[in-house]
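Figure caption, in words: inputs first, then the predicted bound structure.
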Amino acid sequence: MATVELEGVRKNFGNLEVVHGVDLAIGEGEFTVLVGPSGCGKSTLLRMIAGLEEVTSGAVMIGGEVVNHLPPKDRDIAMVFQNYALYPHKTVAANMEFGLKLRRLPDAEIRRRVAAAADILGLADLLGRYPRQLSGGQRQRVAMGRAIVRDPQVFLFDEPLSNLDAKLRVQMRTEIKALQKRLATTSVYVTHDQVEAMTMADRIVVMHNGHIEQVGAPLDLYEKPANMFVAGFIGSPAMNFIPGTVARDGAGPTLRAAGGLRIRLNHDCACEAGREVVCGIRPEHLSITDGDEPDAFPAELRYIEPTGSQTFVFADIPGGPQVCLITAQPRALTPGSAIRLRAAREWIHLFDRETGAVLA
Ligand code: ADP
Ligand code: MG
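Bound structure (adenosine-5'-diphosphate present):
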């Protein structure tokens, strides 16, 4: 167990800077997930922690010590990759032992560690098999086992579940999270999948274009996104964004948007009248209403996507963008019909139109 700290970490490839000064402190035993779209710099950041990529400027610290100039083998870390990187001609046991043999651990200690890891991972009966004789999930477990036997200070994962089918991915993410809690080893886990991030992390780091947008516990990011990028990235289907202007009348603050659209805002909304904003409403906070409530607004139902437990409804609002909402009762919905929508006021987010930053 160790802390991992990054201070002003930058990375250039040639003249191109791809990581722009990242500061981050990861606590002992913490499970931190770096999430963001493809190309935002997650792997580069992880590889700089691992020592597989040189740091252009700034400091990487593990256990309080600057490790910038230490090679990966001296950083006391173990990394698990997407492609497992198992030796095809070695058995499961030999794959797991290999790193320990290189480090000249006593045979008895190697056997003890491999047996313990195999036991934890349910690999005890597979130790004599070769990688080609294993399923994708079993191979991923062997890759995990190889990391565990090292008993490192830090685990680093780079999209370790991306090669697995959807069902196995869900199962393995539960397993990895439980395993991490049991071993209490500081872990940094990279994924582009926000659901994986939400379900696994103690703390999520949302990255975008080589910098950090926000760091927080999963539900904090969902409930209090700092800006439109995080708001749109966390949550599925994505948050709806409706540009408009804040107005105030006897009934309280209101968003006025194109096409005469009015959306009532929460009474404690602090925005001054006339402020140009973007209103963010998650699909789960919009509903179809039969009544004639004053805060409902008209829309035209375009199409529906049933998933079974939930149905995603897409509707056009007057003069505005298409919005998505989630309903549990899909049967009465006909594309082309006129409906009325209602937003859960207390869940509406307002963002600055220029900067995208959330407004208090
Ligand atoms: P992610 O893991 O978030 O998808 P990466 O860290 O792999 O993103 O890449 C971040 C950016 O750095 C991308 O624009 C990518 O093209 C660039 N990049 C990564 N590795 C190299 C390299 N070895 N040489 C040049 N550019 C690279
Ligand atoms: Mg990557």
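The domain at 240-352 is CATH 2.40.50.140 (OB fold (Dihydrolipoamide Acetyltransferase, E2P)).
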